[in-house]
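Lay summary. Proteins are chains of building blocks that fold into shapes, and those shapes determine what they do. In this project we predict the shape from the chain. Here is one chain we studied, written as its sequence of building blocks.
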Amino acid sequence: MKKISLWKDDAKTSSFAPLQEDLHVDIAIVGGGITGLTAAHLLAKAGKSVAVLEAMRVGDGTTGFSTGNLYAIVEESFKKLQFKFDKKTIQAVADSRTAAIGYIENLVRELAIDCDFHRRPWRLISETDTYDKILEKEYQACLDVGLDAHLDSVAPLPFNISKALRVENQAQFNPMQYIKALAAQAQKAGCMIFERTPVLRIKEGSPNVLYTENGTVTASKVINATHSPKGVRFVHILLGSYREYAIAVKLNSGDYPEGIFWLIDKLHHYSIRSYTSSSGENYLLVLGEPHKVGHKKDNEICFKNLENYIRARFDVKSVDYHWSAQNYKPADGLPYIGAVNHKANVYIATGFATDGLTYGTLAAMIISDLILGNENQWSKLYDPQRHNPLKSAVRFIKENIHVFMDYMKDIPYQAEVKRFSSILPGEGKTIEIKGEKFSVYRDESGELHQVSAVCTHMKCIVNWNNEQKSWDCPCHGSRFTVDGQVIEGPAIINLPKREDNNQH
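And here is the predicted shape, written in a compact code that computers can read:
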């Protein structure tokens, strides 16, 4: 089984060099995923000098681990949004997301991008009548915003269902193939793309200065396209960080169902779709098992749960891929897109939940218009400074209770082990040494990797992620390698390594 996303395995490897000099550009974009590269393409085409700084490889963040689905519907559900917003707002959400899908489709056609783009129906499935009422309410909400919605009693699945909400004219593609082609097009338009170039510090001002290991980038404007903006910002207390899991399987027999399928199960849904690789291999993908970052000890069981779920419904031959990804849920159900520092011209795009491919594209469209001075009808809707406490109250309180409890559980701090000898090969444990908190991983060869256990973002204590072999912050979702390097999240600074390596 490959521990990599199917999308990444079925796309060419990019080869952009790291930054090796000081640059001056109009716009610096931090992050080379769908948000950053869409914005880069739009702005470079408009004649702006643009530099994209990607810490890993293009698409190696959330984009390469997504569902590959594009839809106007939102994870929050239109019905739930109706309790918070008026009809005009909800209509604008549906229209803006529909426009983003249309933008992708037009670009695929215009540039002849080979990324398996297809229009497909989206379905919300209830296997028993327990959830029929939820479907009926969401069906009406979809009709209210003008979507081509239908309520069915059958679906192209090999098991019995109670009801299915079907929305036509949604879409699917391979997100990695798409953004690799988009990166090439942005480069042709004059955009400079640098991989393996993490931003170590951002000095906001006029101009802004971004510091990397081998050079600085001075820019009039900065776009934070890193899923969760780097540094400490107010918006972080409005976000809940979650991980979800995915597997790709082959079937012994039966058809691979076409379309996007969300199956309601207890408190959340599973997402199912099919994909045919460039080599002609068919796969069925299932995604789900969400939990807050850093809150699940035995997170490897999530893959087993997905496997059990899909085997109970399909004739599975083999499980060929498995991967996990991170998302950030906004307090009021809508993402935060736009300027957070008008004086320094700094922009963010975050809070996409699991709707990131569509919202990421929309964010690039909005921010590009703001930078170019074009009117955008949706910019006020997603303005990151719009915060409305009443509409955000329930989730705001819920998420921040989690954060508060994560702070409190470490006061006083209780180490998981007292001795290095208690840490087995392949394990990561927290330990206290001379009053300081450390995270220690013993690799398969027996070597210890010791770093501070204190997250460099806002000082929470990181927890071990056994599935990813990483240290994850349960407060705001920053993640670090066993040697302390930032993987994702708002943290910029690596976890310091322990200099005294005496084992006791």
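What the prediction tells us: The two ends are 38 Å apart (CA to CA).
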